[in-house]
Amino acid sequence: MRSNMTSSHKIGLVSYAVPEHHNELLLYVNGGFNLYIQNFKKMGDPAVWDGEWHAICTTWRSSDGVWQLYADGVLKGGGSGFNVGGKVRSGGAWILGQDQDIVAGGFDANQAFVGELSKVNLWDRVLSPAEIGADWAAFCDLHGNVIDWDTTNIELFGETSRAEYQCVCSVDIVFVVDLSWSIGMVQFEVARQFILDFVRCFGNQDVNIGVITYDCVPRTFIGLGTYALGDAGLLGAIQGLMYSGGLSRTSLAIRHMTATSNFRDEALRAAVVLTDGNAQSNVNGQITGDYAFEANEARSADIALYSVAIGNPILVNDVALKAICGESDRVFDTDNACEVANRILKDLCG
Question: How many independent structural domains does the chain possess?
Fold first, then answer.
Protein backbone atom coordinates (compact mmCIF):
# COMPACT_ATOMS: atom_id res chain seq x y z
CA MET A 1 0.00 0.00 0.00
CA ARG A 2 0.99 3.61 -0.52
CA SER A 3 -0.91 6.58 0.93
CA ASN A 4 -0.51 10.06 2.36
CA MET A 5 -3.51 9.60 4.67
CA THR A 6 -3.03 9.31 8.43
CA SER A 7 -4.05 6.60 10.87
CA SER A 8 -6.43 9.07 12.52
CA HIS A 9 -8.75 8.58 9.54
CA LYS A 10 -11.32 5.79 9.55
CA ILE A 11 -10.33 3.65 6.57
CA GLY A 12 -11.64 0.37 5.22
CA LEU A 13 -8.68 -1.37 3.57
CA VAL A 14 -9.87 -4.94 2.98
CA SER A 15 -13.49 -5.87 3.72
CA TYR A 16 -15.23 -9.25 3.52
CA ALA A 17 -18.95 -9.38 4.35
CA VAL A 18 -21.41 -12.28 4.48
CA PRO A 19 -25.18 -12.12 5.09
CA GLU A 20 -24.66 -13.19 8.71
CA HIS A 21 -22.04 -10.49 9.51
CA HIS A 22 -20.82 -7.43 7.61
CA ASN A 23 -17.44 -7.57 9.39
CA GLU A 24 -16.78 -11.24 8.74
CA LEU A 25 -13.18 -10.25 7.99
CA LEU A 26 -12.03 -6.65 7.88
CA LEU A 27 -8.73 -4.82 7.99
CA TYR A 28 -9.72 -1.38 9.22
CA VAL A 29 -7.76 1.71 10.24
CA ASN A 30 -8.92 3.82 13.17
CA GLY A 31 -6.05 5.12 15.26
CA GLY A 32 -4.01 2.19 13.95
CA PHE A 33 -4.68 -1.12 12.24
CA ASN A 34 -7.64 -3.14 13.50
CA LEU A 35 -8.41 -6.72 12.50
CA TYR A 36 -12.06 -7.77 12.56
CA ILE A 37 -13.13 -11.40 12.45
CA GLN A 38 -16.69 -10.74 13.60
CA ASN A 39 -15.09 -9.14 16.69
CA PHE A 40 -12.11 -6.81 16.45
CA LYS A 41 -8.57 -6.54 17.77
CA LYS A 42 -6.51 -3.35 17.71
CA MET A 43 -3.08 -4.43 16.49
CA GLY A 44 -0.80 -1.41 16.26
CA ASP A 45 0.01 1.81 14.45
CA PRO A 46 3.20 1.43 12.38
CA ALA A 47 4.52 4.50 10.55
CA VAL A 48 3.38 3.67 7.03
CA TRP A 49 1.44 6.80 6.05
CA ASP A 50 4.30 8.66 4.34
CA GLY A 51 3.51 8.37 0.64
CA GLU A 52 5.96 5.47 0.17
CA TRP A 53 5.23 1.83 -0.59
CA HIS A 54 4.85 -0.42 2.45
CA ALA A 55 4.02 -4.11 2.84
CA ILE A 56 1.36 -4.83 5.50
CA CYS A 57 0.67 -8.39 6.60
CA THR A 58 -1.73 -9.62 9.29
CA THR A 59 -2.10 -13.21 10.49
CA TRP A 60 -4.65 -14.99 12.70
CA ARG A 61 -4.95 -18.61 13.80
CA SER A 62 -8.31 -19.95 14.92
CA SER A 63 -7.01 -22.73 17.18
CA ASP A 64 -5.42 -20.44 19.77
CA GLY A 65 -6.33 -16.95 18.54
CA VAL A 66 -2.70 -15.98 17.89
CA TRP A 67 -2.51 -12.82 15.77
CA GLN A 68 0.33 -10.77 14.32
CA LEU A 69 0.87 -7.48 12.48
CA TYR A 70 3.89 -7.00 10.22
CA ALA A 71 4.98 -3.83 8.41
CA ASP A 72 7.72 -4.17 5.78
CA GLY A 73 8.61 -7.59 7.14
CA VAL A 74 9.05 -6.38 10.74
CA LEU A 75 6.74 -7.62 13.52
CA LYS A 76 4.87 -4.61 14.95
CA GLY A 77 2.32 -6.31 17.19
CA GLY A 78 1.07 -9.69 18.31
CA GLY A 79 -0.93 -11.60 20.89
CA SER A 80 -3.19 -14.58 21.45
CA GLY A 81 -6.74 -15.46 22.49
CA PHE A 82 -8.46 -13.49 19.73
CA ASN A 83 -11.69 -15.19 18.59
CA VAL A 84 -10.48 -18.69 19.50
CA GLY A 85 -12.29 -21.33 17.45
CA GLY A 86 -13.76 -18.73 15.10
CA LYS A 87 -14.34 -19.39 11.42
CA VAL A 88 -14.63 -17.21 8.33
CA ARG A 89 -17.74 -18.21 6.41
CA SER A 90 -17.92 -18.54 2.65
CA GLY A 91 -20.31 -16.97 0.17
CA GLY A 92 -19.55 -13.31 0.85
CA ALA A 93 -18.23 -10.28 -1.04
CA TRP A 94 -14.70 -8.84 -1.01
CA ILE A 95 -14.19 -5.09 -1.27
CA LEU A 96 -10.90 -3.17 -1.32
CA GLY A 97 -10.68 0.43 -0.13
CA GLN A 98 -14.09 0.60 1.63
CA ASP A 99 -15.90 -0.89 4.62
CA GLN A 100 -19.12 -2.79 3.89
CA ASP A 101 -22.08 -2.33 6.23
CA ILE A 102 -24.12 -4.78 4.17
CA VAL A 103 -22.91 -7.31 1.62
CA ALA A 104 -21.42 -5.31 -1.29
CA GLY A 105 -22.92 -2.07 -0.02
CA GLY A 106 -23.56 0.31 2.83
CA PHE A 107 -20.47 2.36 2.04
CA ASP A 108 -19.46 5.58 3.79
CA ALA A 109 -17.44 7.96 1.60
CA ASN A 110 -15.67 9.26 4.70
CA GLN A 111 -14.18 5.79 5.26
CA ALA A 112 -12.72 5.43 1.76
CA PHE A 113 -9.05 4.63 1.31
CA VAL A 114 -7.16 7.22 -0.74
CA GLY A 115 -3.94 5.86 -2.16
CA GLU A 116 -2.67 2.78 -3.95
CA LEU A 117 -3.08 -0.91 -3.17
CA SER A 118 -1.25 -3.79 -4.79
CA LYS A 119 -0.39 -7.43 -4.16
CA VAL A 120 -3.43 -8.07 -1.93
CA ASN A 121 -3.25 -11.82 -1.26
CA LEU A 122 -5.11 -14.13 1.15
CA TRP A 123 -4.09 -17.54 2.49
CA ASP A 124 -5.91 -20.21 4.49
CA ARG A 125 -2.84 -20.70 6.66
CA VAL A 126 -0.47 -18.55 8.74
CA LEU A 127 2.62 -17.46 6.81
CA SER A 128 5.99 -17.98 8.47
CA PRO A 129 8.18 -15.00 9.43
CA ALA A 130 10.58 -16.03 6.64
CA GLU A 131 7.78 -15.85 4.05
CA ILE A 132 6.62 -12.47 5.35
CA GLY A 133 10.26 -11.19 5.66
CA ALA A 134 11.69 -7.89 4.51
CA ASP A 135 12.86 -9.12 1.08
CA TRP A 136 10.62 -7.09 -1.22
CA ALA A 137 11.64 -9.02 -4.32
CA ALA A 138 10.53 -12.29 -2.70
CA PHE A 139 7.35 -10.67 -1.35
CA CYS A 140 6.32 -9.73 -4.88
CA ASP A 141 6.48 -13.38 -5.91
CA LEU A 142 4.00 -14.55 -3.24
CA HIS A 143 0.59 -15.79 -4.39
CA GLY A 144 -2.34 -16.35 -2.03
CA ASN A 145 -4.13 -19.69 -2.24
CA VAL A 146 -7.52 -18.10 -1.47
CA ILE A 147 -7.04 -14.77 -3.23
CA ASP A 148 -4.14 -14.41 -5.68
CA TRP A 149 -3.68 -10.81 -6.76
CA ASP A 150 -2.12 -11.80 -10.09
CA THR A 151 -4.98 -14.05 -11.22
CA THR A 152 -8.08 -12.64 -9.49
CA ASN A 153 -10.44 -10.54 -11.60
CA ILE A 154 -10.88 -7.16 -9.89
CA GLU A 155 -13.80 -4.89 -10.83
CA LEU A 156 -13.34 -1.13 -10.49
CA PHE A 157 -16.02 1.18 -9.10
CA GLY A 158 -16.24 4.91 -8.44
CA GLU A 159 -13.11 7.04 -8.66
CA THR A 160 -10.76 4.08 -8.95
CA SER A 161 -8.18 3.50 -11.66
CA ARG A 162 -5.78 0.72 -12.54
CA ALA A 163 -2.04 1.10 -13.13
CA GLU A 164 0.80 -1.37 -13.52
CA TYR A 165 2.67 -1.97 -10.28
CA GLN A 166 6.39 -2.61 -10.59
CA CYS A 167 7.68 -5.01 -8.00
CA VAL A 168 10.82 -4.12 -6.14
CA CYS A 169 13.94 -6.00 -7.11
CA SER A 170 17.58 -5.69 -6.06
CA VAL A 171 19.60 -3.53 -8.48
CA ASP A 172 23.16 -2.19 -8.38
CA ILE A 173 23.73 0.85 -10.61
CA VAL A 174 27.14 2.42 -11.27
CA PHE A 175 27.59 5.82 -12.90
CA VAL A 176 30.71 6.22 -15.04
CA VAL A 177 31.30 9.97 -15.36
CA ASP A 178 33.57 11.65 -17.93
CA LEU A 179 35.49 14.57 -16.37
CA SER A 180 37.64 15.33 -19.43
CA TRP A 181 38.35 18.68 -21.09
CA SER A 182 35.80 18.07 -23.86
CA ILE A 183 32.99 18.00 -21.28
CA GLY A 184 33.73 21.36 -19.64
CA MET A 185 32.69 22.70 -16.26
CA VAL A 186 29.13 23.70 -17.19
CA GLN A 187 28.23 20.31 -18.65
CA PHE A 188 29.94 18.55 -15.74
CA GLU A 189 27.56 20.38 -13.40
CA VAL A 190 24.65 19.24 -15.58
CA ALA A 191 25.90 15.65 -15.26
CA ARG A 192 26.22 15.94 -11.48
CA GLN A 193 22.67 17.31 -11.21
CA PHE A 194 21.43 14.47 -13.41
CA ILE A 195 22.85 11.91 -10.97
CA LEU A 196 21.27 13.72 -8.00
CA ASP A 197 17.90 13.77 -9.77
CA PHE A 198 18.28 10.11 -10.75
CA VAL A 199 18.83 9.01 -7.15
CA ARG A 200 15.72 10.92 -6.03
CA CYS A 201 13.56 8.99 -8.53
CA PHE A 202 13.55 5.86 -6.38
CA GLY A 203 11.17 5.24 -3.52
CA ASN A 204 11.24 2.11 -1.42
CA GLN A 205 13.60 0.26 -3.75
CA ASP A 206 16.55 -2.03 -3.08
CA VAL A 207 18.98 0.00 -5.19
CA ASN A 208 22.68 0.55 -4.52
CA ILE A 209 24.43 3.46 -6.25
CA GLY A 210 28.11 3.70 -7.15
CA VAL A 211 30.07 6.40 -8.99
CA ILE A 212 33.28 6.05 -11.02
CA THR A 213 34.93 9.16 -12.47
CA TYR A 214 37.56 9.27 -15.17
CA ASP A 215 39.83 11.46 -17.23
CA CYS A 216 43.22 9.93 -18.00
CA VAL A 217 42.69 7.42 -15.20
CA PRO A 218 39.43 5.89 -13.85
CA ARG A 219 38.78 6.18 -10.11
CA THR A 220 36.07 4.77 -7.84
CA PHE A 221 34.49 7.81 -6.18
CA ILE A 222 31.56 6.10 -4.41
CA GLY A 223 31.66 2.34 -3.94
CA LEU A 224 28.50 0.29 -4.23
CA GLY A 225 26.91 -0.16 -0.81
CA THR A 226 28.81 2.72 0.81
CA TYR A 227 25.52 4.55 1.35
CA ALA A 228 21.94 3.34 1.59
CA LEU A 229 19.59 4.74 -1.04
CA GLY A 230 17.77 7.04 1.41
CA ASP A 231 20.94 8.11 3.23
CA ALA A 232 21.51 11.87 3.07
CA GLY A 233 25.21 11.05 2.91
CA LEU A 234 24.72 9.68 -0.60
CA LEU A 235 23.45 12.99 -1.95
CA GLY A 236 26.21 14.82 -0.10
CA ALA A 237 28.84 12.55 -1.61
CA ILE A 238 27.46 13.10 -5.12
CA GLN A 239 27.48 16.84 -4.54
CA GLY A 240 31.16 16.46 -3.67
CA LEU A 241 32.01 15.40 -7.22
CA MET A 242 34.61 17.82 -8.65
CA TYR A 243 35.57 18.56 -12.26
CA SER A 244 39.15 17.76 -13.26
CA GLY A 245 39.68 18.05 -17.01
CA GLY A 246 42.19 15.88 -18.82
CA LEU A 247 42.10 13.24 -21.53
CA SER A 248 39.05 11.01 -21.99
CA ARG A 249 39.77 7.28 -21.77
CA THR A 250 36.31 5.81 -21.68
CA SER A 251 37.24 2.22 -22.51
CA LEU A 252 39.56 2.11 -19.50
CA ALA A 253 36.73 3.47 -17.35
CA ILE A 254 34.29 0.80 -18.54
CA ARG A 255 36.95 -1.87 -17.90
CA HIS A 256 37.53 -0.46 -14.39
CA MET A 257 33.78 -0.52 -13.72
CA THR A 258 33.44 -4.14 -14.81
CA ALA A 259 36.45 -5.34 -12.82
CA THR A 260 36.15 -3.41 -9.56
CA SER A 261 32.52 -2.47 -8.83
CA ASN A 262 31.80 -5.34 -6.40
CA PHE A 263 28.23 -5.94 -7.53
CA ARG A 264 26.10 -7.97 -5.14
CA ASP A 265 25.67 -11.59 -6.17
CA GLU A 266 21.88 -11.38 -5.78
CA ALA A 267 21.48 -7.99 -7.49
CA LEU A 268 20.79 -7.17 -11.11
CA ARG A 269 23.48 -4.92 -12.61
CA ALA A 270 23.52 -1.73 -14.65
CA ALA A 271 25.99 1.01 -15.53
CA VAL A 272 25.23 4.48 -16.87
CA VAL A 273 28.08 6.12 -18.80
CA LEU A 274 27.89 9.92 -18.96
CA THR A 275 30.15 11.15 -21.78
CA ASP A 276 30.21 12.94 -25.13
CA GLY A 277 31.60 9.80 -26.80
CA ASN A 278 34.95 11.36 -27.71
CA ALA A 279 38.14 9.69 -26.46
CA GLN A 280 41.92 9.61 -26.84
CA SER A 281 44.49 6.81 -26.89
CA ASN A 282 45.09 5.03 -23.61
CA VAL A 283 48.46 4.57 -21.92
CA ASN A 284 49.32 1.56 -24.10
CA GLY A 285 48.76 3.44 -27.31
CA GLN A 286 45.50 1.65 -28.07
CA ILE A 287 42.70 3.71 -29.54
CA THR A 288 39.76 3.99 -27.15
CA GLY A 289 37.32 5.61 -29.55
CA ASP A 290 35.84 2.17 -30.28
CA TYR A 291 34.10 1.07 -27.06
CA ALA A 292 32.61 -2.11 -28.41
CA PHE A 293 35.10 -4.55 -26.89
CA GLU A 294 34.97 -3.27 -23.30
CA ALA A 295 31.20 -2.79 -23.55
CA ASN A 296 30.78 -6.39 -24.70
CA GLU A 297 32.95 -7.55 -21.81
CA ALA A 298 30.66 -5.68 -19.42
CA ARG A 299 27.55 -7.22 -20.96
CA SER A 300 29.18 -10.65 -20.69
CA ALA A 301 29.38 -9.94 -16.95
CA ASP A 302 25.58 -9.37 -16.99
CA ILE A 303 25.90 -5.59 -16.70
CA ALA A 304 23.23 -3.70 -18.65
CA LEU A 305 24.76 -0.56 -20.17
CA TYR A 306 23.15 2.82 -20.78
CA SER A 307 24.69 6.07 -22.02
CA VAL A 308 23.76 9.68 -21.34
CA ALA A 309 25.06 12.44 -23.61
CA ILE A 310 26.84 15.33 -21.89
CA GLY A 311 29.15 18.02 -23.30
CA ASN A 312 28.79 20.25 -26.35
CA PRO A 313 25.81 18.88 -28.33
CA ILE A 314 27.59 19.64 -31.61
CA LEU A 315 30.53 17.44 -30.61
CA VAL A 316 28.61 14.49 -29.14
CA ASN A 317 29.54 11.23 -30.90
CA ASP A 318 26.20 9.42 -31.15
CA VAL A 319 27.78 6.36 -32.79
CA ALA A 320 30.11 5.92 -29.82
CA LEU A 321 27.24 6.33 -27.34
CA LYS A 322 25.31 3.61 -29.12
CA ALA A 323 28.42 1.40 -29.15
CA ILE A 324 28.63 1.75 -25.37
CA CYS A 325 25.11 0.53 -24.64
CA GLY A 326 24.58 -1.64 -27.72
CA GLU A 327 21.11 -0.27 -28.52
CA SER A 328 20.10 3.19 -29.72
CA ASP A 329 17.07 3.29 -27.41
CA ARG A 330 19.41 3.12 -24.42
CA VAL A 331 21.01 6.46 -25.33
CA PHE A 332 19.53 9.36 -23.37
CA ASP A 333 20.05 13.05 -22.74
CA THR A 334 20.04 14.77 -19.35
CA ASP A 335 16.53 16.21 -19.56
CA ASN A 336 14.69 13.52 -17.59
CA ALA A 337 16.64 11.48 -15.06
CA CYS A 338 13.54 9.58 -13.93
CA GLU A 339 12.94 8.35 -17.47
CA VAL A 340 16.35 6.67 -17.35
CA ALA A 341 15.77 5.31 -13.83
CA ASN A 342 12.37 3.87 -14.78
CA ARG A 343 13.77 2.38 -17.98
CA ILE A 344 16.51 0.56 -16.05
CA LEU A 345 13.99 -0.86 -13.57
CA LYS A 346 11.67 -1.91 -16.39
CA ASP A 347 14.49 -3.60 -18.33
CA LEU A 348 15.94 -5.39 -15.33
CA CYS A 349 12.96 -6.04 -13.09
CA GLY A 350 10.20 -6.42 -15.67
Answer: 2
Check whether residue 107 and residue 223 sit in a common domain. Answer: no
The residue type of 49 is W
3-class SS of residue 218: strand
Nearest of 16, 14, 149 to residue 89 by alpha carbon: 16
SS3 of residue 23 by DSSP: strand
- Specify the pairing of strand 33-37 against strand 21-29: antiparallel
CA distance 280 to 265: 34
Residue 157 is assigned to a structural domain of this protein: no
Given its phi and psi angles, is residue 225 left (phi above 0), alpha (psi -120 to 50 degrees) or beta?
left
* Amino acid letter, residue 289: G
Residue whose C-alpha is closest to residue 213's, from 185, 238, 187: 238
The answer on 332 and 283 residing in a single domain is yes
- Is the confidence at residue 87, as pLDDT, over 70? yes
Residue-range definition of the domain harbouring residue 190: 170-349
Express each pLDDT in 17-61 by its tens digit: 999 999 999 999 999 999 999 988 999 999 999 888 889 999 999
Structural domain contains residue 165: no
Sheet holding 33-37, edge to edge: 39-44, 33-37, 21-29, 11-18, 93-96
